[in-house]
Design a protein that fits this description.
With 148 residues, this protein is mainly alpha-helical. The protein is globular and about 40 Å long.
Length: 148
């Protein structure tokens, strides 16, 4: 039986690099943002990053298992379809995939006791789906790097 995304992405040899690659992906996505919503997103990220050294890395590490779970059904379908580019596959299902991934951070925000971080998240949540959708090709490339 093929390994799950959890098994692949969270494998001891892979997980630290997946986290590092995820942080690079976040930085690249932020660099591509412009306009009012892009600036709001950059400000929210700066607020969170300034909140505590290493906080974003910690959150990526905590969210990664949940993201792997959310992406698993898409990965299974993608593999069965014989597709070549997982990022394209995800992008074609952008609304659905973005909302599925955002349920992770929505749940986190409901349970967090970090008021300033939750406030920053809520300030950008309304437009978050379009930003997540824009990142899906890079997310797919990241997954393929390890699971390809």
């Amino acid at each position: 039986m093929a390994a799950t995304l959890q098994e692949i992405l969270l494998a001891p040899d892979n997980q630290p690099q997946v986290i590092a690659d995820s942080l690079t992906l976040i930085d690249a996505e932020l660099a591509d943002k412009s306009g009012i919503s892009g600036n709001a997103l950059k400000l929210a990220y700066k607020t969170v990053s300034s909140f505590a050294s290493g906080y974003v890395r910690q959150m990526v590490a905590e969210i990664l298992p949940h993201a792997a779970d959310r992406l698993q059904p898409y990965w299974t379908d993608f593999r069965a379809s014989g597709g070549a580019e997982f990022g394209d596959y995800l992008a074609k299902r952008g609304d659905e995939v973005a909302e599925s991934l955002l349920t992770i951070t929505d749940t986190w925000a409901e349970e967090s006791d970090k008021a300033i971080v939750v406030k920053a998240y809520r300030a950008v949540r309304g437009g978050a789906a379009k930003h997540v959708e824009a990142a899906l090709p890079r997310v797919g490339d990241l997954v393929l790097k390890y699971a390809g």
